[in-house]
Design brief:
Layout: H1 22-37, E1 42-44, H2 45-53, H3 63-75, E2 79-83, H4 91-95, E3 99-103, H5 105-118, H6 120-123, H7 129-140, H8 142-145, H9 150-178, H10 181-187, H11 192-222, H12 226-242, H13 252-271, H14 279-323, H15 328-339, H16 392-414, E4 421-423, H17 432-446, E5 452-454, E6 460-463, E7 471-476, E8 479-484, E9 487-491
Antiparallel strand pairs: 1-3, 2-3, 4-9, 5-6, 6-9, 7-8
Length: 496
């Protein structure tokens, strides 16, 4: 991505959305926008003030505040001002600079976006199977569009992109709504059963459209002539360059990259890229998963709803059967059948058998004890208390091992020091941990003005020459690197 200069500049026109007096600025901009929609482009300060005073929120609003607010919005570029000199009857009126105000083009687009944001949850979203069909039909016209003139080609290109954008946005918004917490809660209610079938049918219609159109679109994109695609993209770019624009700098390469990127997005969405699954395939799987989830919720709700009613019907039927018994003995026999232990509860346990013989019966095995835990909320298992464990021997052993390891490490490091000198240029191939320790010593000494430091065991050392011009290659088992040929001198005694 190329960062252009205009991307680094702040958008001053959006400042009114988040400043101290936003509660006054936003109604003023909204007023101008509503008038703009009615083709009333210019307004005087008095008109703005009168319109605002109609609302109770602006009952204490003054003309001075209105003038200040309009001036602030004009300074940010939201309003375009022009001095009206025709109504000036005196010099004083002329000096007061009676202005007319108009909403700037940038402010119109920003306010339009704000209104769109405000109505996101009101408008809702939907799945339109027809969009897939229209995309398929337009892509099938790709070969013949190469020979069309710029105007027809550009219209075809805009329609293709608009349908693709709507398909993406609508699907994402709709899936977000179905996967929201609110939707999850609603799916668990009985009221959900009322429109469950309609929702599933709606989603299946979209899935059916995917199955019918996506395969055709994918084959078309994979077999498309790349030269034809390039010609179309160049013609679209040329047509956009030919559109007259006021006060806008046109970059041909930027437009071509935009057009090429949009085509690449369409291709990847339907055909995939680098062997990866296409977005259309993911959409298909996601939609089917939503259908399965809805079905599971609906089945669960139905079972819960019918459980009570079925049980009531069973008891009613049993009462009728008991009422038809000839005597008490027959009633006892019926009770034994209905309420007796017909199907004993089997507890599954991790039974360890003494033999693997298939001829050995269950009565020959040792008894398996099962601890049944009450299924109540206030039940808690008793915590097993254990005394303090004495781990002093383990700690002492770890301490001795640590001391021994440090001694061996110090012995290894000192083996590279000859006659109290550690010369990096004369070091053999060393291990990485040895190298790291030597470089740590070197950095500690270089940080001090006298180039003197002390090792972990208290040995004093210093760098023989701080400004070394010669370089050497430090060879290690994991590689080698070039560094100044420093020499560290070690001496006995206390820290200087």
């Amino acid at each position: 991505m190329k960062i252009q200069e205009k991307m680094k500049k702040p958008v001053m026109e959006a400042k009114y959305l988040n400043v101290e007096n936003t509660d006054r600025y936003r109604p003023i901009i909204r007023l101008f926008y509503l008038k703009y929609e009615k083709l009333k482009y210019w307004m005087y300060q008095e008109e703005v003030f009168e319109e605002l005073k109609e609302d109770l929120y602006f009952q204490e609003y003054t003309m001075e505040q209105c003038q200040q607010d309009l001036a602030a919005l004009a300074s940010w570029g939201n309003l375009i001002t022009i001095q009206d000199t025709r109504k000036a009857a005196t010099i004083e009126e002329f000096k007061n600079k009676k202005f007319r105000y108009q909403l700037s083009e940038t402010a119109v687009e920003i306010e339009r976006m704000v209104i769109r944001i405000e109505n996101l949850f009101i408008e809702g979203s939907s799945l339109e199977p027809t969009l897939l069909e229209r995309l398929r039909i337009n892509l099938e016209k790709l070969d013949e569009m190469v020979s069309k003139d710029g105007e027809k080609l550009y219209g075809w290109w805009n329609e293709l992109n608009n349908d693709f954008i709507r398909l993406n946005q609508n699907y994402q918004d709709y899936m977000r709504e179905l996967n929201s917490i609110r939707a999850e809660e609603m799916m668990k209610t009985k009221e959900f059963l009322v429109f469950k079938d309609r929702l599933i049918e709606y989603l299946r219609s979209f899935v059916k459209s995917l199955q019918i159109n996506v395969t055709t679109i994918e084959q078309k994109l994979r077999n498309v002539d790349l030269k034809s695609v390039k010609d179309i993209l160049e013609k679209v770019t040329a047509y956009e360059l030919s559109i007259p624009r006021m006060e806008v700098e046109i970059d041909e390469q930027m437009i071509y990259d935009k057009v090429k990127g949009r085509w690449g997005s369409i291709y990847e969405w339907f055909a995939g890229k680098d062997g990866m699954e296409s977005e259309a395939g993911k959409v298909f799987d996601t939609t089917n998963e939503i259908i399965r989830k809805i079905t599971r919720y609906a089945t669960r709700i139905s079972e819960m709803s019918n459980q009570g009613s079925n049980r009531r019907e069973e008891y009613k039927k049993l009462a009728e059967i008991f009422g038809k018994c000839r005597d008490i003995n027959e009633a006892h026999r019926l009770s034994a059948v209905v309420f007796g232990i017909e199907k004993p509860l089997h507890l599954k346990g991790n039974l360890k058998r003494n033999t693997d013989s298939i001829n050995s019966g269950v009565y020959e095995e040792d008894a398996h004890i099962v601890t049944v835990i009450p299924r109540v909320r206030n039940y808690r298992e008793k915590a097993k208390r254990s005394g303090i464990i004495d781990r002093s021997k383990e700690k002492e052993a770890m301490r001795i091992a640590m001391i021994q390891r440090l001694k061996e490490e110090q012995k290894l490091l000192k083996s590279y020091i000859h006659d109290g000198r550690l010369e990096f240029a004369k070091l053999p191939v060393i291990e990485p941990h040895v190298r790291d320790m030597f470089l740590l010593w070197l950095s500690k000494a270089l940080e001090r003005k006298d180039y003197c430091a002390k090792t972990e065991d208290g040995q004093i050392y210093y760098i023989e020459q701080g400004n070394v011009e010669e370089y050497c290659v430090l060879k290690c088992t994991d590689g080698e690197f070039q560094m100044p040929a420093y020499t560290m001198v070690f001496e006995e005694g206390e820290e200087r």
